[in-house]
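User: Run a structure prediction on this.
Assistant: Running it now.
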Amino acid sequence: MQQDKYLKQGALTLSVSVIIGFLVDYAFNLSLSRTLTTHEYGDYKVAYAYATICGVLVLLGGDRVAPKVLARPLANKSAREVGGFVAFFSKIALALSLVLFLIVYLSGYIHLGSWSVNDHHALLWISAAIPLIALGAILSRVLQSAKMLVHANLPWRIVLPLAKTVVILTLAALLEQVHLWHVIVAGIVILALITSWQLKVLQNKDFLTLLQITPVSNQPQLLATSIPMMLAMLVTIAVSQLDLYMLELLALEHEVGHYAGAATTAHMIPVAQVSVIALFVPLLGQALEKGEDHAEHILWQGQKIMFAIVLVLSCGLFMSGSHLLQLFGEDFFSANDALHYLILGSCFWAVTAFISTWLQYTGKGKYVVIIGILTLCTDGLLNWLLIPTHGITGAAISTCVALFLASLLTWATFLSTKKHALKSHSIRSG
């Protein structure tokens, strides 16, 4: 009964966050693309992709493993234990963020011969946001694991893009020209405010304390569990962002901005995918403590909902995608074919993502990492071959093929391990 109530409330919350969040994020990208030049908008998307990847990297999978590790401490309201977990991964994230900042700064100096931050790429400016992105990710996972989905999702899905949109429009009204660094600095301030608020919520609810923490025991074992999850997530994000980097290298500058418009439009499917998984992961973590057989009904319940949502969204985007693209500007219609391939590729992976999560939570994360690396290599090779001749459409075809391969291999791995488990069970029973 309690689980059904949670699922109904969670489904409503996530439906609102997906629909309104997509519209608000779309409004932000529209306002940004019309305020900045097409080249600057492409630079922003590249920098944002870099920050997203690094935000996952520096946490070493702490956010991914949180629902599994914190299920019991949160149920017992062991704030010191939760605080120890958050502090452990936050310190790692801060240290690695500093290393990345120095690497980007020194790389920029070697390339440009200047120490001035004004001469460097937007990657340097956005590097300052990486520790905040990491802290926000782990706090959101704690809130999600505590089944506080409103506090975990709405600030990032709705408040963040809405606040950034308001800032962009305000800057455009006040300044003669809005520069890329204005956008990044404003985003960092908003990130800090949201992260501080989430931390305060957890402390007020007695889910977390940072004053008297219980240090994480057996840290090497925890990292041995979390790092494969991080690698799997990292590869998944890298596949979605690799196109932007390779277009930056192999295509015309304005094409990066056009492709970013198509990717933003198709992004509604991955957002829905992540939201459905966020709804079921806390239940999955608790159920797995009683065994895989007990947890499997959670998996298939989530898969049914995922399939229905993906079907509806993909049909809607196929029908309205060209109109949505033209909101960025008439020249963005050139990305229409690319959009169709990105929608198709997103569908392939969306109906597989929860299976991938299951493999990670049941100790088979190494297979997910291997599949991810093969997918990334496939996407990179196809991009190298197709972008010079087919431009942004070639990049989208590469992603579509790579995600189809990832989906096929993930399902094959899941069915193979399940068949092996049933065979082993039959032998023991016999």
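The two ends are 37 Å apart (CA to CA).
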